[in-house]
Design goal:
The protein is of the alpha+beta class. The chain is built from four helices and 14 strands. The protein has one domain: Deoxyribonuclease I, Chain A, CATH 3.60.10.10.
Length: 257
């Protein structure tokens, strides 16, 4: 048996807004080895020190060049090397924290949303391809891969409450879902499905409109994927849908490495 590591990923939809709700304080009650936040919408110096009391030894903040948009943040006590993958995030939108420790490449990613227009959809799909090529290169070098974050696509019909109504919506387009198929065909495991099979009505994002969260009209668009060599290391994978404060909820992974 190795050591158990707990990973949590959460699209907070504005870290300063979440702080005002004290919605990250639950972190202090948990033993989380890697905390990956997406859509922080802040520069490093704008992140309040009061988001939680737990003091992590290492943090990596990757803010967007477009102020008030995107941005990702990674917190951990495990020493490693951080990177922002500018060859993948070519528009410098603050979309990736890469962190290399032991023989593992861990990625906290806020993948693009394609709903604005055709140009953004094309950018999202190109980002997907660049990212997959990058992690495949690392895997070919012998690294184990962990990917978390807001993928901005629901993979299968069981991953959203209204599949038929959203067949023409970015986030559930056949071309986006095909990339998710490709990711899995390339040997990456959807850890939630690995642990929970065909479980339905489990979502990680709900529109703020029409009481969608109360009615559980949601989408599962936040994921943890791991490379095939980590399959037997998966201890737990879950959606923390009781945690409030954003239109997304956190997702969790425990590995025995």
């Amino acid at each position: 048996m190795g050591r158990k590591l707990t990973f949590v990923s959460w699209n907070v939809n504005g870290i300063r807004a979440v702080e005002k709700k004290e919605a990250l304080r639950w972190i202090d009650e948990e033993q989380i080895d890697f905390l990956g936040l997406q859509e922080i919408k802040a520069e490093a110096e704008q992140i309040p020190e009061t988001i939680f009391s737990r003091g992590y030894k290492f943090q990596s903040i990757n803010s967007s060049s477009k102020k008030g948009q995107s941005g990702v943040a990674l917190y951990t006590d495990i020493k490693g090397e951080a990177d922002s993958c500018p060859h993948v995030d070519i528009l410098d939108e603050g979309r990736i924290n890469a962190y290399y420790f032991d023989n593992i490449a861990y990625f906290n990613v806020y993948f693009p949303n394609g709903q604005r227009n055709e140009e953004r959809l094309a950018y999202k799909l190109a980002f997907y391809e660049r990212f997959l090529a990058h992690i495949n290169t690392l895997r070919a070098e012998g690294k184990s891969i962990i990917v978390c974050g807001d993928v901005n696509t629901a993979h299968q019909e069981i991953d959203l409450a209204r599949p038929k109504a959203n067949e023409g919506t970015s986030g559930f387009l056949p071309i986006e879902r095909a990339w998710m198929d490709k990711l899995i065909e390339n040997g990456y495991i959807d850890t939630f499905r690995h642990m929970h099979g065909e479980a339905t009505d489990r979502y990680s994002w709900w529109s703020y409109r029409a009481g969608a969260r109360d009615r559980n009209v949601g989408w599962r668009i936040d994921y943890f994927f791991v490379s095939e060599d980590l399959r037997e290391k998966i201890v737990e994978a879950d959606i923390l849908d009781h945690i409030m404060g954003s239109d997304h909820c956190p997702v969790k992974l425990v590995l025995d490495i």
